[in-house]
Amino acid sequence: MEYFMYILLAFLVICALAVSFTKSLLNAVLVFMSYSLIMSIIWVLLESPDLAITEAAVGAGVTSILFFITLKKIEAIRKTQAGEKGKENE
Q1: If you ran DSSP here, which 8-state letter would residue 58 be given?
Q2: At residue 89, does pLDDT exceed 70?
Q3: From CA 54, how far away is CA 67, in angstroms rounded?
Q4: Do 36 and 59 meet the contact criterion of CB atoms below 8 Å apart?
Q5: What value does the mean pLDDT of the chain take?
């Protein structure tokens, strides 16, 4: 069981570094979601199920959904601005 905890901690550090160094916002959100899921597994192993449920619901659930909605809105703004620039060039 101790080796499994070390593996999870290594994945946790890898996810934290990956979020910092990734260039794509969508990939960063997906890695952040996996970070939250790994953290919730660690909370279960530390025998704290209330924190595990909260981490899974808020960290991987609600926060990720809000990030996805934000990314969608940002892309919609960029598409509108690109369309306006195309009209100005005509």
Answers
A1: I
A2: no
A3: 18
A4: yes
A5: 86
H or E, element range at 72: helix 63-89
Model confidence, pTM: 0.76
Residue 83, CB-side half-sphere exposure with 13 Å CA sphere: 6
Looking at the structure of the chain, the number of domains it has is 1
Range of the domain at 26: 2-89
Helix then strand then coil, in percent of the chain rounded to 5, is: 90, 0, 10
Residue bearing tokens 């994945």 = 11
